[in-house]
Structures are given as C-alpha cells and as structure tokens.
Amino acid sequence: MINLRNIFPFLFSRSFLGRTVAVILLGSFTNTSVCQTAHPHILVNASDKQLILDKIARQAWAKKVFDSMRSAIAPYAERHKTDPQWILSRYLMNRVPGKRYTHFYADAGGSALIGYSGDAPFPTVRVSSNKRPPVTKEGLSYKLPTIEQLKPYDTAMLMQLERLGPDARKEWVDPQSFVEVLNGKINQLALEASVIFWLTGEQSYAAFAADILDQWAHGASQQFPVEGACRTGFLSVQSLGDGQYEAMPLIYDFLYDYLRRHHYGTSWYESVFEKIAHTMTFNGFWNNNWFAAQSPAMVFAALSLEDRSRKDFYLNFFLNKDTINGSCGHLALPSVVKKWLTPDGHWKEPGGYHNYPVSNLLIAGLAMEKNGYPIFRQFPQLLRASSVLLKYSFPDLSAPSFGDTGPASQSPECLEIGLLMATKYKDRILPQLQSAMHTLQQKKGYRREASGYMGLLCYLPETASCSAVYNWPRSGALDFAKCYLQRNGTGKEHGLMYAVQGATYNHNHANGMSVELYGSGMVMGVDPGKGVTYEVPVHVNYYEQWAAHNTVISGSRSASVPYFHGGGGAKNIGHITLSAMEPLADSNAISPFCSFTDTRYTDIATRAKQQRTLAIIRLSDSTGYYLDIYRSDHPQDNEYIYHNTGDTVSLLNRDRKPLELKRAAIPLCRSPFDPPGLRYIRNTLSSATGENITALFRLERNGTDQYMQVLFAGQNDRTFYAGEAPSTNTAPPVYRNRPTPAIVCRQQGEAWARPFVAIYEPFAGSGKYSVDRIEMESERGDKNFTALSVYNRDGSRQLILQSADYTVLKQTAISKFEGAFGVINLVKDQPRYLYMGYGRCIEYGKYGIKMKKPGAVNLSVSAKILEISCSGEAYITIKGNKQIAAVFLKGPTEKKLLIEKTADGIGFSVPPVKGGIIQLTVNHQP
After folding, report:
1. What is the value of pTM for the model shown?
2. Which of 445, 607, 623, 777 has the greatest number of C-beta atoms within 10 Å?
3. Distance (Å, rounded) from C-alpha 924 to C-alpha 314?
C-alpha cells in the first residue's frame, strides 16, 4: 500500500487536514498512473524549436529579444562555471542549522509571520515576513537592492535598505515582501537561462539554471504551506507572493532531460509542484482578482505533475470546478466569465487591476492551449478582455484611474496573446485586435523587442499589416463601477474626454461623483490612485477618501459607511445613478460638438442629495471646454474640490488679475474628525468672494507651458482655497513625487438652488485660451434650473440650459426649454445650432424644436439649409417666414415634408434621422 504520509507529508499538516479537499485527494489517489510527457510542453514543445530559431533569424525584434536575454545572463552563466556558489549564496534561504525552518505561522489576518518551527537537513526557502514591502515611518518606499548588492549566505532577518525620496540614507529594516521579490529576480534569470539552453544547447546556461532550481527544490520539498488564514501561501505569507516562483515549473520543463542526464535529484520535484498546485487552487480569495492572478502558477505546476490523475485533478479546477470555501478558493473559467468580466471583457475592478488578473488568465490559457485544451474557442470572452482597456482609454492611451490603482494602459502582452489565439481560431474579433496593435505601436510606441521570453517563445512572428485606425466610441459605460465617459476627438493633443464614476465594488474609493478630465495631451484633472500600501495613514485617511477626488463633500463629513480603516476591499458608498446621457454608451452621437451626462447620488453618510451634469462642448477641431454643474442639498455647507496635475495654481478675479489672498486653513469637521481628509490639503490661501473667479493651473510639458483654466460662476457665501494636496500617483512620472495643486470652493449653506457651476478649458501656451468669460443668465426662481452664457474670444457664445427636473418648461422672452441639457450656439446673437441632449422642447429666436417623446436632437442652421439629427420624431417651427413653400428632407432618400402654417410662421415634422438635410424652398410670388 502507498504511504501517502511519506510521499506528500504536506497533505497531513493541520492546515490541510481540516479541508474537504483532503478527503477528495485520499479518495482519488488509490488509482495512480504516470503519464509519459515529452518535454518541454508547458509553453512550447520540441516541434516549436525550429520555428522559434527561424523567428530569431528572420525577425529583427525576436533577435533583439534573444540577444538581450543572452547578454543579460551571460556574465552570470560565465561566473557560474568557476564560482557556482556566487548566485546560490545570494538566494534568500534559511541556512543556519537548527533554523532551517519547515513550518511557518501567520497572524490571524494572514498578513505577517509570527512564528517558525522545524529544522530541515539542508537550507529551506526563506518566506517573506509580511505581505507588504517595507515602508518608512513617513510612508515612503525603500529601494529594492540589486542581486549584486545582496550579502552572500545572508542569515540576518534585517537588511540595509536605501530610503527613496530626498533623505536617501540606508537603514536596517525587515525586508518583508522584498524577500520573495529578490528570489523572484534570481528565478527569472534561471528561467531565461533555461530558454537559451533549450534553443542553443549551451551547457553553461543549463548548469546555471539547474543549480538554482535544484537548491530551491531541495529546500521547498521540506517545507509546509504557511499556516494561518486562507490567504497564506506555500513559500510566501500570502499565496499571491508564490507567483514569484511560477518560473520554477517552466525551468524544470526546459531542463527535464538535462537534469536526468546530469543526475540531479529530481525525486524532490513532484511533491513541490503539487504543493504549489494545491495552494494555488485552495488558498487565496475568489471574490477579487487574487485567484486569477494565481492561475499561471496553478496551471504550470499542475501541468508539471507526472501523475496523470493528479494533473487532471487540479486542471479540472481551472476548467470546470469552483473551490469556494467562504471567501477562500478559486473560480473556474465559466464562473470567471460570468462573475468577473463585463460583456465587453473589462475586469470588474478598477482599470489598473484589469491587466493583472486578465494577463495571468491569458498566460494560463495559453499553456492550456499548448497542452490540447481549446480554452479560447470555448471562452471567447478572453479575447475581448485582451484588448478592452484600450476602448476606455483617454486620448493619451492611459486608462481611467478610479479606485486603488496606479497608472494603467492597454497591456501589449494581453493584446499579443489575444492576437495569437484569435488568429488560431479565425475569430471575428481579429481585425479589431490588429487595429488595436497598430494603435499601440503608432501612438504608444510599443516595440515587440520589449516582449521578453514570452514574446520570443509564443507570439506571432509578425502582426498583420494594418493601417486601420482603432475605432473609439464617443461614449462608454462600466456598469459595475457606475462609470460613464464622453469623448470628443481622439488626437493626443486636442482630444477631450471625461469620466465620472462612483460605486461600491472591490478596490473602489470613497469619492461620491468623481470626475477625471483630459486636456493638452494628458489627464489634467486627475484621480489620485493609491498610497504606497493600503495601510499607510495617508492612504487610509486621504487617497481613499473624498478630499483626494474631484467631487463634492457634503457637510464636511462625507465618508463610507462604515468608515474605512485600511485594506483593499470595497468601501460602502452606495452608488451613483445615471439619469440621462447623450450619446448613450457605444451609441452614435447626435451632435459633432456636444455631449453630456446627468448623474445623481445620495451621500449615505450625510443623506445629502446630489446631482451632477457634465458636458463637453467643442468649439473647433483644436479647442473646446468642459461644463460642470454640481448640486448638493446639505443645509450646513458643501465643498467642491478639484485637483490638477501641475506646478502651480492661482486665483484670478473677473478681470484676470490675482485675487487678494490670505493664509487660512480649510475648516474641518470635528465630530467625527475630518472624515473626508481635507486636512491633507495644506499651505492653503483663501479668498471669500461672491464674484466670478478663475482658477488657473499651470505645468510645463515638453518645453511648453500647459494650462487648465477653471471659470467659476459666482455665488454668495463662498470661500475659495488654493493649496497643495499630496502627490498623485497616476500623474506623469515627473509629478508623482510632487504636491498636487488643488482648489476647494466652500459654500456655506445648500448648493442645490445655488449649484457649483464651472467651465474647464485646457490650453497650451500663455494666453492661448478660448473661453473669455461666463455669466449666469437671469432665472425665475426655479432651484432646479441653470442658464449660463459662455463668451468666447472668437465672438461666439453658447447659451447653456440645464435642469434637474426634466418635466418643467422654462420660458423667457426669447427661449423655451424643457429637458435635462441644452446648448444654443450663437454668433452675433444668431443661432448656429440648437442641441438638446435629452428633453421635449428647445427654442431660441425664430427656431424651435419639440420632440414627440423625450429624446435628443441637434439642429444646425444656415440661410436656406438646416441639418438635423434626432433620436425620435421632431417637430420644427420657424417663425417669421411664411413664404416657405416647400420643405425637403434629404438623406438616404429624399422626402417632401408636410408644412403646417402657424400664427407666426411654419412647422413640419421630421422622422428620426442622422445627418438629414432640410432644404427650404421660398415662394417669391407676391
């Protein structure tokens, strides 16, 4: 009878015996079979070698990858010939006899090690003491040492690390998760050396990789998975950290025959790989990106098992069967697609987290494909996920930065794998992926020589020649995040785009209705990203809170409920709702100039009701601005906050002269103490004024001054503050360690009848702005209605009409409006277009439009021709010209429209149409 305790002692540890899976393992292990598999087989097989060598010979990019890998490894491999202990001694191991630990114990939360026990006959792999990297008392990072800087045979638990930032001294600190990262760097060297050996047969590379692998396997074979919460790993305090060792099954795969020819003790490997497969399958969390990130380690380890029944056992959990045990476990691909991917393939977390789980799922899927499992044919959603981040990107190809994220953009790695698999299956998404790749290469500067060993081994030799421009929609929506975006123009320098969002989901921030604004080649109105870790005070008390975002605080105390105290999970803020939007997500726009969103939110901490209208208004191909109207009904006070990437911010009066400012701190809520984190905006200068003001942000980019001007419509009981917020980690690199210029507009009393009204215009070059001034138009006491005129330096004016109540008709001497949002573009007080994003009626001067059902319409006006786009049937009236004898609608087909005479002109109905031309024929007879 097989003695399982001797073969797989880890299965009998306390942490494993308590699980149902142990019973499954024991029940299924009595019928064993060893599968004879040719090696390598995980990512490539023997028949691929000549194809890859041909790729290197014929493709310049592949040769650069190969040459780069070889030149990086060569010094290590050469030294290893005479001094094999040099690299082995720098691997972080438990080396002291009596302290060659085999058992590791984590705290209750699975965040840090609290104990060690056991003593192996040879060194074991050192386990990181904490899930996070070390951080200074000030919340700054330490510099990761190079391999050359590591002390050989280091047995200390502390390491001398250099502080990042202005004070770059060295300190003795616990390296925490740096342990596994440093070992991972050596593992990567060994993997690339094994690839070079497989391709060239050069023995020195094989010896270098094999010795690293062998030392690791001997130590790991004696170790038990960390005991504690289910987030704990095998060789890391958390299972995610085991990703630093996913290279090991690949190294083994490439060196399989070499190891046996040179009499390495390969009997150790099977048990180690099963420990990895088991830990990746049953530890970690299924209710966030965790499990997906573990997929390559899980699949690589499972594919390395010689016992076919054990291999199939673990692969079944990737393919078919979930392992849910409370919040712990792993989801199989059918559940991944259902729970974690939007219909177009976006991972249901912030964009900065999309690439992490998706790239790992794609890599695992690639390995499964190589071993005969048609993953991408069965789950084509993975192909959509491979390119979807580009769809939601700003014109500089950066993704929106909402939530716990860093800078993110479309991953070339994901796209390369998507192209490979779409080509294999001739999927209809292939042309879209090809145009996406063309865009990354032309606009982002992606070069395939940066693709590393994965590109060398797996990517297509050539991407199909494609000059097609990627087709960005004018609008988009991510329902899980309640994120709604509008764009106008996709050029990097002159494109305009905003994203507004707010919801409760994993890794969200507490931010209400927060917005990001793009301008002059970059995201200027930025969301902050995250702190150094999820636990440092500035992250907990600022980055995660309202004050870090472009939003409105109600009553100085907006916060999640319950209040957030650290970590990366969901912060309960409820969610915003979309009330109206034009164009709707992925739909055609009615106007070439205008688009808008109307969102609503109830602050669950204060019960304040809020409404935000955001719009883009394009003035020309190179100029335009954003409109923001934000209502909040908290009776005590409301704070409007805006942060802009840059160097300085100044406050100007209506004549564009500097305001007189005094040093003053922003008033803070005291009970509870400042939940939104306003105290982190420092060095503030203030001015109390009810007049219109302009906030002018400045930064330098590529030798040119760039600006964002923010024109605020005046209201009584307002105080403006200009100050410095903490650094923005999603900003361009040069600004990530600098304070972020910010303004706070604090309104005493409610801000519903007196909403915050602002125009944002990005521009390049001093004095090159287009918007000259704004003026609020007289109203008749309707607290839900706003009328604003925007005066431009080219002589045009936009009369903007906005209402939080769509059902009320607003009428003045020369205009009528019943709807959510409308724009009347005027030149010399004559209308050039009338736009209604959503509503029933808009009228100015002699032109009027009534919609049969609430909808969108744009009417462009010239002497005898009108151009119209409307979402439904529209009734057009023209006053003062009864000589019009006929009206023709020209488009796909010509149609004569029936004219009705009115008391002061004519009227006619137009069916739903896109870009229809209305030709007016005038009767000149007396």
Report:
1. 0.92
2. 623
3. 85
DSSP secondary structure letters along 269-323: HHHHHHHHHHHHHHSSBSSSSHHHHTHHHHHHHHHT-SBHHHHHHHHHHHHT---
Alpha-carbon span 770 to 615, nearest angstrom: 17
Residue 5 has pLDDT above 60, yes or no: no
Q: Which amino acid is at 646?
A: G
For the residues 609-616, what does the mean pLDDT come to? 98
User: Is the pLDDT score of 778 beyond 90?
Assistant: no
pLDDT tens digits, one per residue of 459-501: 999 997 776 779 999 999 999 999 999 999 999 999 999 999 9
Is residue 345 left, alpha or beta, with left meaning phi > 0 and alpha meaning psi from -120 to 50?
A: left
Kindly give the residue spans of alpha helices, DSSP state H, lying in 121-244: 178-200, 203-221
- The sign one gets for the Cα dihedral 721, 722, 724, 726 is positive
Sort residue 252 into left (φ over 0), alpha (ψ -120 to 50) or beta.
alpha
Structure confidence at residue 468 (pLDDT): 74
∠ Cα 728 597 507 (to 5°)? 40
Per-residue confidence (pLDDT) for residue 24, from 0 to 100: 33
Q: What is the 3-state secondary structure (H, E, C) of 598-639?
A: EEEEECCCCCCEEEEEEEEEECCCCCEEEEEEEEECCCCEEE
Peptide bond between residue 145 and the one before it cis (omega within 30 degrees of 0): no
Q: Which residues contact 6 (CB under 8 A, 6 or more apart)?
A: none
Structure tokens at 740: 């972020």
Domains delineated in the chain: 4-340 (no CATH), 475-776 (2.70.98.70), 849-922 (2.60.40)
Amino acid 864: pLDDT: 73
